[in-house]
């Protein structure tokens, strides 16, 4: 069609950085994205990456087996710090997942065209992160083979879950979140499965993608219903994603532990979730676009916008920290005041100051356009924020628990080797799933890229 | 006209498929088909084309209604599940709170509303589209694989009362179609 479109016709051009580099046609975006799955050979780099993450998954399985055989005592948890790494990692992972839903649902409703080339893998990231998150409370429950007790099923014991407890809300919130995210992702993939089915050359692939596409043929009537369902799912996922981290924060806020019992928790957790999620999207997107040569699709505009979202949510998180201190002082509660001082100067002060450096001070560099447009700086920044948000959860969980009301009940917590293998193992699981996703599914929505091309061309030529 | 051939079993052909290069040509052709009085016309495109379904006479989708029903069922079901379990089947006094402590039942009610609505939206969309359907006559059309790539197709189906194998083909060719092919049933 029209090669060499003038840049000013590109969708959403601002300051000369388009969301899609000009010159692409329906055919060329289809070709470029599907080739990653269909014709690109499985490289040594992929095998190396998948191999290393697979070994980490094996380490995870080993840890889980040992945990089930011996019990949660293999972790560093004890009274008073009963929550430890398991809950820190749970909140960290589930927070990471939130950016995927934000990008795919909220930015869709806000008609932000720059979401198009990043939504697919951000949604995949959500699913894999929620899968990793779900492992922790499950195994932390101690006897994971009784996990089904958390669901309301008519048991011979004749009792039901306690619906007045946030921990039960959490079961419903996280399982709903996973189900809805999976459906949203799958619905988005259906037309792309059809593309892969029609372009695949091997019989096995035609059959597999064909089954997944369920006979999608792009009928105008089908598209009409499809769009309506997709938009409704986006509308449903938007309050859902807010509710999930709200419920996660209520796990803490409903308890009376100093440092947990605050009303700022829900908004502050949601902002933190989006903050860490965007950091993770950047951590993944930057190597991805370089390896698969997707710089024309995931442009600097995308990276810069994500950096801006990080800066904004980072400031909200910073506001949350300030309010926590203000409320401790203004509320005049002895224990809350002690907790604040214990964070600043207690035995875990290094973690707290590292958290402030990572989450509050480092992102201030994002005010500068030179930092926001430097790929390397953004990558480093995203890693720093990921670490910072992990530290935040560590401070919330461990520092609040280790010294609560009675000095006689105080204690210290330190993770053991099995805490670390479990955490590293879930990172391996996340990466292994991501490598499989890159190899077998289109990493960018082909359909939506075609729509973007259609929007780019003021009129179809040829 | 052709009705007599339809009486036994499936007609030999499903319809005539015309191929177009652009959305603008396709929408224009679809408008002409409707203006010419064809009723069973469908278009196949690699991405949703704004306004195309309306041009083809498809007014509204029932997906939003189904989603609403799913949401209501999920929400009401979710609340009454908790009410029945906590206040009727196994009443448990927790700190003297009312058995039907409704504010505490809201989070699960909300999650169940979203879950019900989302499941109905997805399954409703698939059911109304009659998917999964792995085999369909349009896949027999030559070059139809491009309908998931960069070409736009318009099909006038043989069951249309105005359908005539020869005249309809001429009509489609007059719409600037790039290619007109018979689709076997």
CATH topology-level name of chain A: Formate dehydrogenase/DMSO reductase fold
Return the domain count of chain B. 2
Biggest sheet statistics of chain A: none
Instruction: Give the low-pLDDT segments of chain A.
Output: 1-14, 458-462
CATH architecture of chain A: Up-down Bundle
| Rg estimate of chain B, integer Å | 25 Å
* Number of helical stretches of at least 4 residues of chain B: 5
Structural class by SSE content of chain B: alpha+beta
How many DSSP-defined strands of chain B?
A: 4
Overall geometric form of chain A = globular
Describe this structure in words.
The complex is a heterodimer of chains A (462) and B (185). Chain A is 69% helix and 0% strand. Chain A has 462 residues and is mainly α. Chain A has one domain (7-456): Formate dehydrogenase/DMSO reductase fold (Up-down Bundle), CATH 1.20.1630. In chain A, helix 7 (220-253) crosses helix 8. Chain A is globular. The N and C termini of chain A lie close together (6 Å). Chain B is rod-shaped and about 80 Å long. Chain B folds into 2 domains: 3-60 and 137-184, no CATH class; 63-128, no CATH class. Chain B is 43% helix and 13% strand.
List the helices and strands and how they pair.
The complex is a heterodimer of chains A (462) and B (185).
Chain A: H1 26-38, H2 44-70, H3 84-109, H4 116-140, H5 166-199, H6 203-213, H7 220-253, H8 265-291, H9 300-331, H10 334-345, H11 349-361, H12 369-372, H13 375-402, H14 417-440, H15 446-456
Helix pairs in contact in A: 1-15, 2-14, 3-4, 3-7, 3-8, 3-13, 4-5, 4-14, 5-6, 5-7, 7-8, 8-9, 8-13, 9-10, 10-11, 11-13
Chain B: E1 13-20, H1 23-35, E2 41-44, H2 52-55, H3 63-89, H4 102-128, E3 152-157, H5 165-173, E4 179-184
Antiparallel strand pairs in B: 1-3, 1-4, 2-3
Helix pairs in contact in B: 3-4
Keywords:
heterodimer, A: 462 residues, mainly alpha, 69% helix, globular, disordered N terminus, disordered C terminus, B: 185 residues, alpha+beta, 2 domains, four-stranded antiparallel beta sheet, 5 helices
